[in-house]
Structure formats: structure tokens, C-alpha cells
Amino acid sequence: MDPDTDTKTMADEDEPLFSNLDLFLFSLIVGLVIYWFMSRKKPEPIPEFKKLEIIAPTTRETSFIEKMKKTGKNIIVFYGSQTGTAEEFANRLSKDAQRYGMKGMAADPEEYDMGELSRLSEIKNSLAIFCMATYGEGDPTDNAQDFYDWLQENDDEDLSGLNFTVFSLGNKTYEHYNAMGKYVDKRLEELGAKRIFDLGLGDDDGNLEEDFVSWREQFWPAVCEHFGVEALGDDSSIRQYELKEHTDINMNKVFTGEIGRLKSFEVQKPPYDSKNPFLAPVTVNRKLNKGGQRHLMHLELDISGSKIRYESGDHVAVFPTNDAALVNKLGQVLGVDLDVVISLNNLDEESNKKHPFPCPTTYRTALTHYLDITHPPRTNVLYELAQYASDPQEQENMRKMASSSAQGKALYQSWVLEPCRNILAILEDMPSLKPPIDHLCELLPRLQARYYSIASSSKVHPNSIHICAVVVEYKTKTNRINKGVATNWLKNKLVTDNGHKSTVPMYIRKSQFRLPFKASVPVIMIGPGTGIAPFMGFIQERGWLKQQGKEVGETLLFCGCRHKNEDYLYQEELEEAEKNEVLTRLNVAFSRDQEHKVYVQHLMKKNKEDIWKLIHSENAHIYICGDARNMAKDVQTAFYEIAEDVEGMTRTQATDYIKKLMTKGRYSQDVWS
Known about the structure:
Low-confidence stretches: 1-15, 41-58
CATH class of the largest domain: Alpha Beta
Family: In the C-terminal section; belongs to the flavoprotein pyridine nucleotide cytochrome reductase family.
Strand content: 15-25%
Structural class: alpha/beta
Number of strands: 25
CATH architecture of the largest domain: 3-Layer(aba) Sandwich
Keywords: Endoplasmic reticulum, FAD, Flavoprotein, FMN, Membrane, NADP, Oxidoreductase, Transmembrane, Transmembrane helix
GO molecular function: flavin adenine dinucleotide binding; FMN binding; NADP binding; NADPH-hemoprotein reductase activity
CATH superfamily of the largest domain: Flavodoxin domain
Number of domains: 4
Distance between the termini: 140 Å
CATH topology of the largest domain: Rossmann fold
Transmembrane segments: 20-38
EC number: 1.6.2.4
Shape: globular
């Protein structure tokens, strides 16, 4: 045997069937096959979805007819209210109905379909009462705007089955005195409605409460005669809300000053309005005057990130709080724990108004944030509280002041209004008067927002709103110091308070007080004292337009203060604007820097030729801001006299001329009384 052959044969016999490479490849193939089987996507079962139950959103009842039928009401009192007074009067009238065997409800026209007025005849002995306030330059209040539009637009409406009466709230110092109430009264009659009692005119420049009480005293007998009913003779107190004390409640569910939504001050959500104000941080709070007894101030509110937009001439509304010292004194006089958590629940479960203010809350929060404790209380409050006076003489005096007798009216005027007695002063001066705090909280009116003319332009300050105000503080006839709620609260809004930013709850109220659309149109601005506020915005805007290369017309300013060295507001800014020719002419009246007083109207007459040329030949727009009672009237008279002196007009012709300017939107006023 060949040794080489033999060796090869033995080697062949020892060699395995598969080489290592074969085994590796085989393993790889098997692994891939298994992986493929394992990783194949299995068909997913289609899940079964349960049919969703669609829950209809809860909607507020917009049919006042159905609500009246459901609750057995036959009198409805609609209110157009900006500051709460008309709403207060409406509530008083709806409560009165009960004393005459009828049932009434107060209603916000914004919440109901006013087209249903024609259906009121479906309810026996039905009556609609309208308590309508006038706002601004003869405008409807915000909540009555839709109703006003509806009245204007529906000429074919047949209201022949509607019985109605109107009480109007206004102020004689304004050009368009009680315009809204007069319009509603006239328009309802035009549409066929039957007036069952004369239009009532309330004048806030005189004694609005007395006007209302006098009208009301004659109104109810007329209603009784019309419907053939008699008064029940029940003059007892009628409670509208019942008290519930919460001994065990989650404090996260308790209102702490929010106007609308609970916790809205912690989690802010736009849009911001009267029911959802924005908490604007105070970035500037400086004193404007260099001397004198008064405190004039300039504040700046930061609106960054709020999406709030404003225009020059708009108003900023702020929600102030009452002085803590005043609230504490009330608690002490009444001998109550102000930190008890309570709810006041409407006894009428069908009412849209479940509580007089956000509940649940504490007495302290209610008296601090929600209730007006500084204004002299109205006669109905005195009437309702009289039962809690243990001294017969004090009880008699309170009832007398609430009556419509001449003696009662005189006593209310001399004891409450003239000495400016607020509820605390009345409780202090009538020691036997110890009302339950829950009834007092039911009767006091709501603390209202305060409006200020914005002193800035959004073109220059898009993220900031400026306020110019004078702090109100005075001594009363009883030697008490009364302080303006909002201005003293704003004065104490320091930029940082114990390391925290001070904030102001606010929103914007749009105004008709607007610069001309064309920048080339001349403007004449008259604003003494803090009346200069909107004109700071106008001047900033005209300056901005000039920087943009726009042709800007002549810009005249007539402003004033007492002393040049004490309270010349915005002196540096105004003189800079004149230097840069943004202000064509700056005219400042320093009323007390000489023996005889000099006011803006005197400076106007000194410039009568230039003023008349701008008005008569160049279509200038006139703007007036400030005191309505004296200044606005004196300025208007000055315009009459300029027309007489320069153009030779008679007083009648001059009056007609200025009225035409008003109609054309060339004579605008932003005034207050």
C-alpha cells in the first residue's frame, strides 16, 4: 500500500459531514427564517368604540316670557346700568311688586331675547318697567347696547300688547341729559306699546335718590289703579337671599376677590373684560406735583402678553378694594368674625342672579372687594335696617328718612347726604342699630369699577397703559376724613410691595373720543387739571405720526393748573412736544398765580381769531376733557362767544353752529361730574 494513499484515505474518513462554514450559514438561514416568522406584523383587531353620549351644553334661559310663566311673575324690570345704580333701582322695584300682590323680577336685557316684548300680553296684568341709565355722550350702557340696536332696527315690530313705564337715570351737567331713557320711552310708544305711567327723570347732579323715591311713590298707585289691585299693606322687610355658613369647606372653592371665574386671578385667560379683568403689574407710580396739599399721580400698567389692545381716547376700568381699616371697623362695630365663610343664596331658585356677589366667600372679602361701603346708603337701605334699631327714636328717624314726606327728604339730605355719612358712620352715630351682617351685605350695593381716560398712545406704548389721577380726600361736616376708594388704593400700589409686584385688575372700555382719521386735520384740545390725560395720548400719537413722515395738522392744547411751580402736570413732556413742533401751541392757565383767576376759557378768547380760523376754515376737531359741571359749560360758552365776536353770529346761530359740530363728530367731550 502506498503510504501517501493510505494517509489520504484516513484523513477523508476523519473529515466531518459539514464544515464550520456550512454550519454557520445553515444557522444564519434558520435564524433569519425564525425571525421572519416571529416578526411578521399580525393583523390588529379593530377596537370597538362605545358610542359617545353627546351632552348638550347647559344654556342660560333667554326667554323671559317662559321664565315669568314658570315662576308666576307678571312684572319684569329691565335695567341698563353702567355703575350699578339702575340695577339697584330695578331690584327695588321688583321687590316692591310683592307688596302689591304681584310678583316681579329684575332682568339684564343683555341676557334675554328682547324680541319677546310683543309676547308679554300672554301674561295677565303684565308690565315691563325700564330703568335706563345714559352713559357718556347720550349713549346706552354696555349691557343695553343690543336692546338699543334692536329698538332702532325693528320698525315693523308690533308692541300693542305691551304695558310699560320708564325711569331714566342721567345727569343735567351733560349735554345729552337722560337721552337713553327718553329714547326708550318715545320708541316703545312709537311701536304701539301703552305707557301706564309718565317717564321718570332722575338727576344725579341733584338728588337721584329723591327723584326715584318721588317717582316710585306716585308710580305704584297708578299701577294699582290700572290693574285694579290694592296694596297689601305689608311694609315688612322682604329678604331676597338666605344665609348659609360653611363650617367645613375646601378653601380652594372660596372666592377671594375674583370678579367672575373662581381662581381667575391665579390662572389668567384672555379675553379680558368686565367679568374677567387682567391683573396688570404696576411699573411706574410717581407723584406729578412738586408742591401743594393735593397728591396728583401718574401710574403705568404693564399689559405685556395679555393681548389687550387699546387706542388713544379709550378708558381703562380698574377694580379697586376698600380700605382694610374701614372693613375692620365695620366688623368691630357689628361684633362679628369677618373670616366666617358664607354664601347668600337667592330664595328665588329660578333667578339668574344666584348670589348678590360671588359666593362662597368671607364677610371680609365681601366688604373689601364686592360691596360699596363708602357712599352714603340709599333710603331703601335705611328703611330695611330700621327694624334693627332698639332705640325707638333712631328707628323712627330711619323710617322717616326713607319716606317720601318733605320732612323725611329734608332729614335724609341734612343727616346723610350733606355730611357724607357712609354705613360705618351711620352705625357709629346710631349706637342702638345692630343689623345682622348678612342682611347688611344683602342690602349694600356692589363696589363698581372706576374709569380713567388713558394717558398714553398704543402706537408709542403698545404694552403699557398710563393713568393720571388726583387722590380724593376731604373732611366731612362730622369731622371724619373720607377717602376716595380708587384713588387712595391706586396711590398705595407701589411698584414692589414686600418683594411682590403690585397688580391692578383692569380692562379696556372703548370710547368714541378719537383723533381724526386724517392726521392732517387740525385739533384743538382743552383739558385743565387731570383732564389733560387723554391729550397726553393724543400728543404722543401725533408725534409718532410725524416721525413716520405723515403730514400732521396744527395741534393746539389749552390746559391748566393752580400754580406753575406746584402742579403743572407733565411740564417737561409738554414743553418738549412744543419744542419738537408736535404741539403747534401750548397754552397753560395758572389759575391762582395772580390775583384774578385765569382759566382755559380765558386763554381761548385771547386766541379767538386763530381758533375760529381752524374751526371754520380748516375743519378742526375740538376735544374737551374734565369737569362737566363747570368747565365744560364755560368752554362751550367761550366757543359761542368766539363765534359771536369773530363771525358776528347771534347766540342762537352760535349755539346751532356748535351743535352741528357735535353732530358731525367734530366736537367731542370726555367729561365727568
